[in-house]
Amino acid sequence: MKMFRNSGATLVFRTARVMGRRALFSKRHADAGLTWCVKAIIGLTAVFLLLPVIITVVMSVDSRDYLGSFPPPSISMHWFDRFFHNAYLWPAFHTSLLLAIATTAVATAIGTLAALGISRMSPHLRDPITTAFLAPLMLPGITIGFALVMVLSAVDVLPTFYKLLAGHLIVAVPYTIRMTLIGLSGISRTLREAALILGANERQAFFTITLPLAKNSIAAGAIFAFAFSMDDLTISLFLSDFNTYPLPVALVSLMRSSFDLTLAAAAVFLMGLTIVILIMLDRVLGLDRVIGHGIYRA
Predict the structure, then answer these.
(1) By the 8 A CB rule, do 121 and 212 touch?
(2) What is the CATH number assigned to the segment(s) 78-292?
(3) Residue 125 has pLDDT above 70, yes or no
(4) Contact between 71 and 57 (Cβ < 8 Å)
(5) Domain boundaries, the chain
(6) How many CA atoms lie within 13 A of 28 on its CB side?
(7) Residue 75 pairs with which residues in a beta bridge?
(8) Cis before residue 52, ω within 30 degrees of 0?
(9) Residue 75 dihedral angles phi and psi, to the nearest 5°
(10) Is the dihedral of CA 116, 117, 120, 124 positive or negative?
């Protein structure tokens, strides 16, 4: 009887061990399958995002004088030469660049000061005021553009460039406010109070304590403002005229009138400009600090 019980216990133990091994084997297979699916999704996403860019870059160096099949038979830079000497596109790029620089400078200054004031408000005022400042991000660009063209046409005292600047600031300022608030939220108020106790005034406390700690968030907001201004089409379409127009408006107009690979050359040029700006930011500030570490704890 005792031997029967021992053999039964041994059988149960062996069965449980075999089932445990099978379960572990199945779990490993499931984990391996899930890992493969995740890698496949990441790969397909990368292809989906990069394929249009690759095609645009390749077609921008097409040696043919017309839009032909892909891939091109040979390589030439004549489409870039046409872009740089295009009397319609190149002035538009100058306008876009000046507009983006002005928008970035003004939006960064306004957004930093507004965020500094909002961060010092009481909680029951801070949230509704922040929501009011960020409201333009919730509105469609066509709504903002239509409203601005109606108001500015009635007043009609601003040059076209300043109308474009006003339209871009409406959307760029909320970006700078939001990013600056992220940086300011991580700065302990005791640091500012300690500086004031030690004899510094408000201006000195801001430039020696607050600004150095929040500079990366401010820089991130400036990057968003510059990128938006360079890429905006909807608002600019309402506020441009035949003399002053940014590059996105010019590209859309050219695409409707005479579609050729000058558009691809312009797109590649803008991509190259973006890469150069990112490299400069990485050299000067450190791109990981500008984008990835906007909150400081003290």
Answers:
(1) no
(2) 1.10.3720.10
(3) yes
(4) no
(5) 1-60, 78-292
(6) 6
(7) 62
(8) no
(9) -115, 140
(10) negative
Backbone phi and psi for residue 62, each to the nearest 5 degrees, phi listed first:
-70, 135
- Residues in the chain, overall count: 298
- Give 227's pLDDT tier (boundaries 50, 70, 90): confident
Q: pLDDT tens for residues 139-154?
A: 888 888 888 888 887 7
pLDDT at 295: 42
Q: Which residues of 133-155 are buried (b: 16+ CB within 10 A; e: fewer)?
A: beebeeeebeebbeebbeebeee
Q: What pLDDT, on a 0 to 100 scale, did the predictor assign at position 282?
A: 67
The gap between the terminal CA atoms of the chain, to the nearest Å, is 73
Per-residue pLDDT tens over the stretch 181-193:
888 777 777 777 7
Residue 243 has pLDDT above 50, yes or no: yes
- Do 223 and 290 meet the contact criterion of CB atoms below 8 Å apart? yes
**CA–CA separation, 182 and 218 (whole Å):** 9
Ramachandran assignment for 159, one of left (phi > 0), alpha (psi -120 to 50 degrees), beta (any other): beta
Which structure tokens are listed for 258? 């005479």
Cα-to-chain-centroid distance, residue 136: 17
DSSP for the chain reads -HHHHHHHHHHHHHHHHHHHHHHHHHHHHHHHHHHHHHHHHHHHHHHHHHHHHHHHHHHHTB-SSS--PSSPSSB--HHHHHHHT-TTHHHHHHHHHHHHHHHHHHHHHHHHHHHHHHHTS-HHHHHHHHHHHHGGGGS-HHHHHHHHHHHHHHH--S-HHHHHHHHHHHHHHHHHHHHHHHHHHTS-HHHHHHHHHTT--HHHHIIIIIHHHHHHHHHHHHHHHHHHHHH--HHHHHH--SSS--HHHHHHHHHHH---THHHHHHHHHHHHHHHHHHHHHHHT-HHHHHH------
